Amino acid sequence: MIVLIKRLLRGLRNDKRLLGLVFVAPLLVMTLIYLLLSSSTDTPVIAIDTGNPLLARLATALDESAVTLAEYDAMTAAGALADKTIDATVTIDDGGLTLTLLEPNAAVAAAVSRALQDAQATLTGAPAGQAQIVFLYGDPEATLFDAFGYILLAYISFFFVFLLAGIALIRERSQGTLERFILSPIKRGEIVAGYTIAYGILAMIQSIIVVLFAVTVLGMNLGDNVLPAILIMVMMSLAAVSIGLLVSAVAANEVQMVQMIPVVVIPQALFIGLIPLDNIPFGLGNLAYVMPLYYAANALKKVTVYNEGLAAVAPELAVLLGLTLVLGLINTRVLRQFRKI
Asked: Are both 15 and 125 inside the same structural domain?
């Protein structure tokens, strides 16, 4: 197995185009999406205590195209914000309005503040003045990229690692290398482990580069959680390698492999955190629990947005490891189709 790993790594080192696809392309795509997200807007969900007469009148004047209104009393609103089911709460005291956001996000803060000001302008006797903005989690100076950058880390790396592993195994099959290994005394499990480890090493390097690029060049705020973020990315990349190997083993040729890419990659975007699972119809949100990106995105959000440590993401890391092992067993059995008995 060691000989197989060394041979694969030497071959990868000499393939300049493939190395460019793995190391340079993710940085270019990530930079482009960073520029887009930095100027994009969102419609936040806010809770207002309609038991307060002034806030009740303010709620009726809010433009629901700018914000989504969720009616809570003061106690349940605080709990909903802590449970991350809403983005902000609006309260009032002697100092005026206080806007409490779930996460630091300049776009969300601006949208809610503007909606409150517009509502105040249409009412007489409404609480006046600029709302004081406080955050439950994170840095008040964070941007939209800081709020959703963890999704880019997971999704972009998953896509390129999956593509690398899938195309590489198809190439091995077309050259007859895989069949020669299968017909040799090497066990199928060792073959799968060799491919997974070899491409996993490449994916590990990519994960480190992507995270460090996001922190040092794009300014993503990871605080003291750079190493946990890298570990999450590595575990997710190993699962992506296993999925790529499985898809390429199932595909009959390169054309089928290319056709299967959107089938595997696009559904991952639905379960990565941009869309609440409860909003996905027909109970399809439950498919998230077999998606590696779902666990990787949850873990990255804990360490990047909520500043939680490695212990908090241990369940997600365990699931990613379990998925990798299960996929390895499946890949081992799939390789039987190449051995003529």
From this structure: no
Which tens digits make up the pLDDT trace of 241-284?
Answer: 889 888 887 776 676 677 677 777 877 776 776 666 665 656 66
Do 158 and 277 fall within a single domain? yes
Chosen domain end from 105, 135, 165: 135
Query: Measured on CA atoms in the order 22, 25, 30, 31, is the torsion positive or negative?
Result: positive
- Identify whether residues 154 and 118 lie together within a single domain: no
DSSP-H helix ranges across 186-313: 188-216, 226-250, 254-270, 292-304
What domain range is 250 assigned to? 2-37+143-338
Residue 231 is predicted with a pLDDT of: 92
Burial of 175 (0-12, 13-18, 19+ CB in 10 A): exposed
- How many angstroms separate the CA atoms of 30 and 45, rounded? 27
Phi and psi at residue 140, to the nearest 5°: -60, -20
Asked if residues 132 and 98 have their Cβ atoms less than 8 Å apart, the reply is yes
Question: Using CA atoms, how far apart are residues 166 and 281, in angstroms rounded to an integer?
Answer: 31
Same domain, 120 and 10: no
Which of 13-27, 63-77, 159-173, 247-261: highest mean pLDDT? 159-173
Give the chain's domain count.
2
> In terms of domains, do 92 and 169 share one?
no
Q: Looking at the structure, tell me whether residues 60 and 199 fall in a common domain.
A: no
Say if residue 213 is in the same domain as residue 111. Answer: no
Q: Which pLDDT does position 262 carry in this prediction?
A: 73
Instruction: Give the separation between CA 302 and CA 308, rounded to whole angstroms.
Output: 5
Paired strand residues for 89 = 47, 100
Strand order in the sheet with 45-49: 68-72, 45-49, 88-93, 96-101, 132-135
Record the tokens describing residue 38, joined without a space.
Answer: 């930095």
Query: What residues have CB less than 8 Å from 124, skipping those under 6 apart?
Result: none
